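Q: How do we represent a protein-ligand complex in a form that can be generated token by token?
A: Start from the inputs.
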Amino acid sequence: MSHAAIRACALAKTHGAGQGLLRAVDEVDLEVPQGQLLAVMGPSGCGKSTLLHLLGGLERPTGGQVWLAGQRIDTLSERALARLRRRSVGFVFQAFHLVEELSAAENVELPVLLAGRSWREARRRTGLLLERVGLSDRARHLPSQLSGGQRQRIAIARALANDPLVLLADEPTGNLDSAATFEVLRIFQELRAAGQTLVIVTHDERVAATADRLISMRDGMFVDDTRLEGTHARGLGGLIGLEG
Ligand SMILES: Nc1ncnc2c1ncn2[C@@H]1O[C@H](COP(=O)(O)OP(=O)(O)OP(=O)(O)O)[C@@H](O)[C@H]1O
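Then emit the structure tokens for the protein with adenosine-5'-triphosphate bound:
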């Protein structure tokens, strides 16, 4: 039997206690099939980032369970969880979070080396990934020598470096102009077409329009969960002004 890429059951994260108790994520159930591009929207503070962190093992839930490709992750030891994050989860952030002292290529090589693979393998993977994000000619540039859109494409290459089970992106286009947003969405579409599972937290309707499925959150809960089959092309077409 094949497993869902992501499964969560009564997943919860609370902060504080008593009168001050805050339910950042309030007992949500979620199943994301392999290869789905899921967008999560909702007002500021509704728990989107927290949800993403729980799914990727960046934060531990205070209740419920999470599985990645059938493996329960909320009960893993710190050591096992760190290993899982390094090898099986790719994160993309709004502010890129590249290592400023390293070149574009070195930023992509780093997680491959940290996962215990060889220099040779790191270089091989980096070459392929830079090509995939269209930045082979920027390999030796420092992040400060790249545009915002180029930095985010390097960050995506880095997130993919260990061939993750899931790619989790938190406002990936939040700092980008329309042209750079389009480039990033194009890469996400290509990844999706290749079977990559993606969960994207966004405030941007244009990003959500390219997803297979849209979940709307409020106060830590899912208030809507809609399949958007067949809208990818329209979403991208609209973005580059092909539609009136
Ligand atoms: N470490 C923490 N301690 C206390 N409260 C927290 C902590 N982390 C998050 N919260 C609260 O949990 C709620 C959900 O936060 P979260 O960052 O997940 O929201 P969000 O939907 O991603 O918001 P935004 O769109 O502004 O990024 C917020 O009310 C936030 O203030």
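The longest helix spans residues 178-193. Residues 15, 22, 24, 42, 44-50 surround adenosine-5'-triphosphate (CB under 6 Å).
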